[in-house]
Amino acid sequence: MTDVKELEKKAKEIRRSILEMVAKAGSGHPGGSLSATDIVTTLYFNEMNLDPKNPGWEDRDRFVLSKGHAAPVLYAALAEKEYFPKDELQTLRRLDSHLQGHPDMKKTSGVDMTTGSLGQGISAAVGMALAGKLDQKDYRVFTMLGDGEIEEGQVWEAAMSAVHYNLDNLIGFVDYNQVQLVGKTKDVMDVHPVVEKFEAFGWYVIEIDGHNISEILDALEEANKVEGQPIMIVANTVKGKGVSFMEGTAAWHGKAPDAEQLKEALGELA
Amino acid sequence: MSEKIATRDAYGEALLELGKENENIVVFDADVGSSTRVKNFAAEFPERFFQMGIAEQNMVGTAAGMATAGKVPFVSTFAVFGSSRVADQIRNSIAYPNLNVKIAVTHAGITVGEDGATHQAIEDIGIMRSIPNMTVIVPGDAVEAKAVVEAAVDYDGPVYMRFTRGGVPVVFDEEDYEFKWGKVMPIKEGSDLTIFATGVMVGEALDAANRLAEEGIDVEVVNVHTIKPIDVEGVVASAKKTGAVVTAEEHNIYGGLGSAVAEALGENYPVPMKRVGIKDTFGRSGGPEELMDYFEISAKHIISAVKEVLDKK
């Protein structure tokens, strides 16, 4: 029996870590990290089969953060999982740090794929899932896309190939927070309708509230039963979720809070 | 003239043979497998062959994901689609994480022929050479091509290999050919000038050298199969011996072998030199040999370049 309250508590911890590390770094992407937090938390603390003491374990489940700029949420989860000491989060983006501005699999323990150039992570996830099928392994591959990211053509190339190869060991998420760097996704380049697009490509699509842990858990349970096709969980989310002044605004896509703003934000997440 | 074999044929054969020995080799195709010659591997090992459709960016990224799981992916397509079209995917998903993906491209350079400029990669070596962690190899004939594929499998890391569509004279003897990773290969001794040549131009350079010998000009011919990392020591050693250099490649004079040799010599041992290559222009339709003449990279143009440099020596 999953303790939803525990996961919610963990998500709050991770949100606090995101804000603290981005504030300390003086740059980074809080908005898209906070919108993805509840999903990433549920994956790392309830769903994925991992061994932090053996990060390269070949039977582990994989997670590819295709929207690589949300690195802070991934780093916070990995630190909570004890892949590396939590105090190292404070070194984010520093020259002497293993925590790069975007995920680097060769520098950070627990990062399964180097990402950052949008649209590429999902292809790597397809490759990992194909390798799992080829080797008859049971591991699953999870990937998370931004809604702005799916404007990249490569995403749809990957979407076609995942269906062509019947990759039911591939579970994707679209962090549908409706805001990208310069403004609302519908104004920049409308990606709507996302559910129907993935369905048309042949994916098994589940639509949820990406901040409702129970819905995330139910979606994963449903996804795990699907056979013969990849699964896309379209998660309706709020950019900057959890910090009132960051919510729903493009201004906090790639900006660090100052000391005063950090204090206020952490106050809301107490 | 010796027997001609397209290096893509040698690639296809080598891949099939290596596939029998190494179960980790997987091959990706973007709807050109009959032309790139990976169809033989596909027929023998269908479970390790992945048709990705006309979607090269995803093919490159998928190969990267496969490499993270311990596979040795070969990404096969035409040189234009396996370099400039996917430069960012190669850069960020393969080279930056230093994943063990082999990018094996065919139909490189203007000798693609009739398909014309859109299908004639003349900048791929330059693009690949400027990406960190990437090794760039251009075999000079079918014998060398086979050896290159084998060496690439033994090497852990990204490799860009460039093969031809058309027949290339076989210049090496299969019995005693030895591929030395990252080393230039002197194939004809000489004292007046060194021709550094790569790919299809190795045969042209030998032809030029033989014709120059009839005029009493004694040139050294050095095969440069590995353009990155360039063998600085080997390049400088030959330049010290002859004091003059011509480079020959089926690629833009910017960014390829000529640039690599000029960089090595410029920093270590400057000598008079000239680059024979495509003079910063796009290709066009025509027969391969006609195009070599049209773009002034055939043996007779190497001979003119040699004489021009010798005048400055």
Automatic annotation (TrEMBL), chain A:
Residues annotated as domain Transketolase N-terminal: 10-265
Keyword terms: Metal-binding, Thiamine pyrophosphate, Transferase
InterPro entries recorded: THDP-binding, Transketolase_CS, Transketolase_N
Domain of life: Bacteria
PROSITE patterns: TRANSKETOLASE_1 (PS00801)
Cofactor(s) demanded: thiamine diphosphate
GO MF assignments: metal ion binding; transferase activity
Gene3D superfamilies: 3.40.50.970
Name of the protein this chain belongs to: Transketolase
Species this protein is from: Selenihalanaerobacter shriftii
Automatic annotation (TrEMBL), chain B:
Origin superkingdom: Bacteria
Protein name as annotated: Transketolase subunit B
Matching Pfam families: Transket_pyr, Transketolase_C
Keyword Coiled coil among record annotations: no
Organism: Selenihalanaerobacter shriftii
InterPro entries the record matches: PDH/Transketolase, THDP-binding, Transketo_C/PFOR_II, Transketolase-like_Pyr-bd, Transketolase_BS, Transketolase_C
Cofactor(s), by name: thiamine diphosphate
Keyword Lyase tagged: no
GO molecular function: transferase activity
Keywords: Thiamine pyrophosphate, Transferase
Cited PANTHER family: PYRUVATE DEHYDROGENASE E1 COMPONENT (PTHR43825), TRANSKETOLASE-LIKE PYRIMIDINE-BINDING DOMAIN-CONTAINING PROTEIN (PTHR43825:SF1)
Transketolase-like pyrimidine-binding domain span: 5-170
Family the UniProt entry places it in: Belongs to the transketolase family.
Signal peptide positions (record): none
